[in-house]
């Protein structure tokens, strides 16, 4: 017995799926730049919403991005306040806590402003990866993947900086103490030639701040330069199988 003829709708379904696959193989990088750019940009919307008085959607954003970041206020940027960053001593004026879970709950207030929904290191890491994707798209996806050794070198700064901060926090707590707070080792290494504010604390322009920004950018660019060409190769192969 012969099988019944396929209906036009049934015959068209595989063709539509094939067209979508070919489109995705060609344009996936621009879709990624758009969607990932939205993911990168939304943490900046949280303090804007708080400033406008739209607290419920702002708190949704803080809660969502807390899954990706510690959101400690002394390592976060603030908008609409007196300063872009605050030390723990300054934050204790309105939020007298040192426990990390209680500290991260501080969103801000009308005087201090409101923090971006993730920390400075996350901003530099995620944004630089997005920038790598944008440059990859603008280049026509012509990059060769970074070699393993280059990725290792670009990852090393964030690994050293992040691990040393973690050890410091485990040994001395989140408070203003420890070898990654005063950086006495760096004072000795440089002979104390630089201003005290550069060595001590996490303020913008300090050594700790520079290390978080620079190491995050290096890692984000390195990860993008390494991973994106491999992802693109997979999508190209998908497009060829659907052709």
UniProtKB/TrEMBL annotation:
Q: Which domain of life is it from?
A: Bacteria
| A Pfam match | DUF2085
Q: Where is the chain membrane-spanning? A: 28-50, 123-140, 146-167, 210-231
- The organism's taxonomic lineage, starting at the top: Bacteria, Bacillati, Chloroflexota, Thermoflexia, Thermoflexales
What UniProt keywords apply to this chain's record, in alphabetical order? Membrane, Transmembrane, Transmembrane helix
Protein name (database record):
Predicted membrane protein
């Amino acid at each position: 017995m012969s099988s019944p003829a396929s209906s036009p709708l049934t015959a068209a379904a595989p063709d539509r799926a094939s067209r979508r696959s070919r489109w995705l193989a060609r344009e996936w990088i621009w879709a990624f730049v758009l969607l990932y750019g939205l993911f990168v940009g939304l943490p900046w919307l949280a303090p804007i919403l708080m400033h406008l008085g739209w607290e419920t959607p702002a708190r949704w954003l803080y809660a969502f991005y807390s899954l990706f970041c510690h959101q400690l206020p002394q390592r976060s940027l603030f908008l609409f306040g007196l300063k872009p960053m605050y030390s723990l001593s300054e934050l204790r004026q309105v939020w007298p806590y040192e426990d990390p879970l209680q500290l991260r709950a501080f969103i801000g207030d009308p005087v201090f402003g409101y923090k971006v929904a993730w920390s400075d290191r996350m901003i530099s890491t995620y944004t630089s990866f997005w920038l790598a994707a944008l440059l990859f798209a603008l280049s026509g996806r012509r990059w060769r993947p970074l070699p393993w050794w280059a990725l290792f070198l670009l990852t090393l700064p964030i690994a050293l900086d992040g691990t040393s901060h973690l050890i410091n926090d485990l040994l001395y707590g989140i408070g203003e103490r420890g070898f990654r707070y005063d950086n006495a080792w760096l004072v000795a290494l440089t002979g104390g030639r630089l201003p005290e504010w550069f060595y001590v604390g996490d303020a913008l322009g300090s050594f700790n701040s520079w290390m978080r920004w620079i190491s995050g950018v290096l890692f984000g660019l390195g990860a993008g330069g390494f991973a994106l060409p491999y992802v693109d190769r997979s999508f190209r192969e998908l497009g060829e199988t659907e052709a």
